[in-house]
Amino acid sequence: MKSFNTRTAQLSLLPFLLFIVLFLGSGLILQAQGVERAFQQLPGHVAIIPSLILAAWLHRGKLTESIALLVKGIGNSNIITMCLIFLLAGAFSSVASATGGVDAVVNAGLQLIPAGFVLPGLFIIAALVSLAMGTSVGTIGALAPVAVGFADQTGTDPALIAGALFGGAMFGDNLSIISDTTIAATRTQGVPMKDKFRENIKIALPAAIIKALLLVVLATDAGTVSNEPPQWLATIPYLAILILAVAGMNVFLVLILGVLMAAFQGMLLSGYELSALGGDIASGFADMHGIMILAMFVGGLGEFIKQQGGLQWISGVITRMAEKASRKGNRAQQLAIGWLVFITDICIANNTVSIVVTGEISKSIAEKHNISPRRTASLLDIFACSAQSFIPYGNQALLLSATFAISPWDAVTHNYYGFVLLFFAIGFILFGKSLKWDSS
């Protein structure tokens, strides 16, 4: 293994710390000043640019060499594959929304809510919609207006309604085959999505059941929820992509088929014009441009850090800490992987990016300590999504705050799912079966 100067390795992390300071610090300052959407005023894919400049300077090579290193990181096959899938996922969400598929799924779920069970009902609906859409923010955006009406109609505390929606959206985002967190976790670890799903659900499903039961206890509303009659046929594209993806079909084919099926059902049921398909696909692509650019820039920044030994140094520190905690098995190393991505997400406020940033380090730890790739991918996604549930400056909390006219802190503290998920994840590592590396 190539050796690195410790000082150089440590300095290579400065650009990453600068990114955190710029992105997180500007958001906190603007929020304190009362600026709306404070954490969106300096987007991550802009905040990272000074960090890339600093990384190039610390590289101490010719400018052409630094640019070549940046391009190498951006062109990493995992990064490019993720970006292509991001595009297709955005296209599917956009076309499905334009053709009425999102509304159909929402109305179909609302039809099933019994009177007096708005909280657990909304949690389950949000979980199902997020599973289909693959985005927690998109799910909140689709359901929040209806959820506000629930609060007004039933007299339920808006913060409880927001927390139920928040938790369900994160459950689906964590498990969905087309979620960007799933894409990032599976691609960085080189594991099929269906394997990660099967490993992930062992932890997420029990946590969701506990959250739903807790919401049943908290549900004191007695109002009747009214909604439009559902169009069950319009839900077929969502159900189809879930079934095909879990069955093991290539994710590119799944998403392409999803776009085509959504467009077809729109033309068949709601008079959707085929001429609008291109524009809707382009709109879906545009929705993903920020996360794509940031993912590519993170890949470039990671290449600088890797070339100068920063990743190796971090891995060594975490491994030594884990080995001091436990000399038997690899449970301490699994916890180290989880806490690494958790802390990173607390700083960055983006669970996908936190997975991309820590993916290579985690893979190195997993390979060294005989941890299965599907376990590692599952831990990355679970701990990142759990962390996202704790931060009041995340996109989910800010969107709920604006829609429900509550503080982001209220949205976070009433989202009990993040706490339950973290508890189950730690317990699963400490007391569950140790899943070791296999080549299958």
Could you characterize what this model shows?
The protein is an all-alpha fold. It has one domain (79-285, 309-431). It is 76% helix and 0% strand. The chain is built from 23 helices and no strands. Helix 4 crosses helix 5 (63-74), helix 6 (77-98) crosses helix 15 (277-287) and helix 19 (351-368) packs antiparallel against helix 20 (373-388). The radius of gyration is 22 Å and the shape is globular. The two termini are 26 Å apart. The model has no long low-confidence stretch (mean pLDDT 81).
Q: How are the SSEs ordered, and which strands pair?
A:
Elements: H1 6-11, H2 14-32, H3 44-47, H4 49-59, H5 63-74, H6 77-98, H7 101-110, H8 118-133, H9 136-154, H10 158-175, H11 180-189, H12 193-218, H13 236-246, H14 251-270, H15 277-287, H16 289-307, H17 310-325, H18 331-348, H19 351-368, H20 373-388, H21 395-404, H22 408-413, H23 416-431
Helix pairs in contact: 2-4, 4-5, 4-16, 5-16, 6-11, 6-14, 6-15, 6-16, 7-8, 8-9, 8-10, 8-12, 9-10, 9-21, 10-12, 10-20, 10-21, 11-19, 11-20, 12-20, 12-23, 13-14, 16-19, 17-18, 17-19, 18-19, 18-20, 19-20, 20-23
InterPro entries: Na/H_Antiport_NhaC-like_C, NhaC_Na-H+_Antiporter
Pfam family, one: Na_H_antiporter
Organism: Rhodohalobacter barkolensis
